[in-house]
Amino acid sequence: MKKIFVISLLIICVATTLKAKKRDTIKFFTKTDTLILNNEKVAVPRRAFLPDHTAVQYAGNIGFISVGVGYNFIRWYDMTLMFGLQNEFFGQSKETIKMLALKNTFNLYNSFHIYKNISVIPTAGLSINWGYAKNTDSYVRIHLGPFIGSKIRYDFNDDKKLRFKKAIELYFELGTLETYMREWINNDHIKAGDVLNLAIGVRFCYK
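The structure assignment produced for this chain is given below.
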């Protein structure tokens, strides 16, 4: 029964994503910023290596606290490189754990406008996590972290003072790791709530 539930959830996520998308092209070196000069919008070239957004996240299987930078390759897909930390001060852990995560996020639908500049966007994705802990026995582990969630987005008005900030997003994600999911599927004594983790984060969007 658990296997059927997991497979059905994956099919729904993929089908919803494909249905909501239109034809988009990936543009790596043609990014532009819109500036306001003399009350007119002017598109200027943008350096491709500058990030499209920065993020700060609490929990989510990427340490107790994590920060990162990311890029919006397609309108409905973005990738964020996160660095997370968990130690005695951050998370009350007896050992220091450092983590890197390549977080892939897909917008399941364009957006649901709820009030003026505020919209809600359902999301899903997969995070590739690399963790390193150094104590008596150092170890390196790589995990896959699927997640599903939603983000509340506030778009700034076209204001000259805010021209380098396009929007701010508050997001919530419910995720797990592939090892936790395998144990949940194979062990009837483990409940779904035991393997799920809630992440809360803020993203500052510049494009």
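Interim note for the steering committee: The helical segments are 2-20, 178-186, 192-195. Residues 180 and 195 are 6 Å apart (CA to CA).
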